[in-house]
Amino acid sequence: MSTKTLSDFVGTLASQLRVVRRDLHKHAEAGWTEFRTGSLVIQELRKIGGWDVVYGPSIFSRDHMAGLPDASVLKTHQERAIAQGADPALVAAMTGGFTGVVATMGCGQGPTVALRFDMDALDLNESTDPAHRPVAEGFASQNPGAMHACGHDGHVAIGLGVARTLAAFREELHGTVKLIFQPAEEGVRGARAMAEAGVVDGVDYLLAAHLGFKATRTGLVICETSGFLATSKLDAVFTGVPAHAGAAPHTGKNALLAAAAGVLNLHAIARHGEGASRINVGVLQAGTGRNVVPDRALLKLETRGETTAIDGFMLAEAQRVLRGAAAMWDVDIELRPMGCAAGARSDPALAAVVHQAAAETPAVHEIEAAGGLGGSEDCTWFMDRVQRAGGMACYAMVGTALAAAHHDSRFDIDEASLPIGVEVLARAAMALLRPGGGPRRPQ
User: Fold this and answer.
1) Domain containing 314 — which CATH number?
2) Which residue, of 268, 274, 307, 369, is most buried by count of CB atoms within 10 Å of its CB?
3) Whether residue 320 is found in the same domain as residue 396
4) Domain named Peptidase M20 dimerisation: which ranges (predicted)?
């Protein structure tokens, strides 16, 4: 294989990558509702050929599907997906929110290389500004309350481009390739359910990448990402007793005051001495009227830690504080886990493979060895599981010029970054699937 041959092949995919990305952007689907997206992925993989495609409940641990919408919401999104062109049989197979897809291609003896691509949009209304390119060119999200404002539409397009590229060069591969199309990354809800189901068990090398973040110039690749914060997302529901605030306040049990006490004391939790720790209450909803003792309150909060252990400390303290606040005001409390991510690190030896792949990609003009994420990403569940089993993992960033910051209603990517992402990841996978081509963890 020559550099020119692979680059030329990926170049032929550029227009197709753009079409797929824009189609997904127009039909944005939030976490656990990616019925149309999953259907499209399955259909495209079948068209490519050579991939053993698995989807539905078998690739998820039901006990770890955090923040799952209720059945009526999921049904509504299934119906919308079908109305927007999804295959009804495929959508039916995903009933319950099982919207992920795993594709495997066996190429003889050798290591197993997995590549992960997240699929979900954000709970966000896209800008309607006529100057916003998706509006001007007719591919803005038509689904209220859902927008691809983090680039996951591009990630899916890249994943399908990698599938097409590796299938075309299959004769040069020695080992097994696994592509993981993961739902519900936003809110760190989806990866653990797939990891606990064993989808990365037996994987020797795991590769993942994100468009943008610290890589905000098209043609830049950051080969190794650090600074992942472990995190836990939690809803706390306080239930008290309503009462007339003037005539009989003594008969009520005030859920709002319990929640308020919880908020203040959550932020008083001591920070951990062995690394960075965070806590934030992002939502407090309570009460029904000014003359009614509030009988219900909802807190939405998160903890974070530089390591999984530090986040575990913050979460345990938060749960203790919340239960104490409920006891102090004599109300009931229910704590609902809504998502989580582990701490993680990229393996430098595997990052070196990504570095070489980027160096061989003609459209890459800048390479940085490492960069910090400064946030959380649930790909860490896959990374941690692979690494604990003796394998390696690397999370890279593929540069793209941005119209606005991530999670902004005016977000848009430079679509010239899509073939770059395909080529870098395909080159890295192919290098690992050459006889003797993969690095080994130091003994």
Assistant:
1) 3.30.70.360
2) 307
3) no
4) 237-305
Whether residue 244 is found in the same domain as residue 210? no
User: Residue 192's domain spans which residues?
Assistant: 3-225+344-432
* Alpha carbon distance 69, 79 (integer Å): 15
Tokens standing for residue 437 = 């081509």
Q: What angle do CA 264, 269, 273 make, to 5 degrees?
A: 155
Query: How does pLDDT run along the chain (443 residues), one tens digit per residue?
Result: 555 699 999 999 999 999 999 999 999 999 999 999 999 999 999 999 999 999 999 999 999 999 999 999 999 999 999 999 999 999 999 999 999 999 999 999 999 999 999 999 999 999 999 999 999 999 999 999 999 999 999 999 999 999 999 999 999 999 999 999 999 999 999 999 999 999 999 999 999 999 999 999 999 999 999 888 999 999 999 999 999 999 999 999 999 999 999 999 999 999 999 999 999 999 999 999 999 999 999 999 999 999 999 999 999 999 999 999 999 999 999 999 999 999 889 999 999 999 999 999 999 999 999 988 778 899 999 999 999 999 999 999 999 999 999 999 999 999 999 999 999 999 999 999 998 777 876 54
Residues 236 and 217 in one domain: no
Count: domains in the chain: 2
Structure tokens at 83: 């109305």
Measured distance between the N- and C-terminal CA atoms of the chain, rounded to whole angstroms: 32
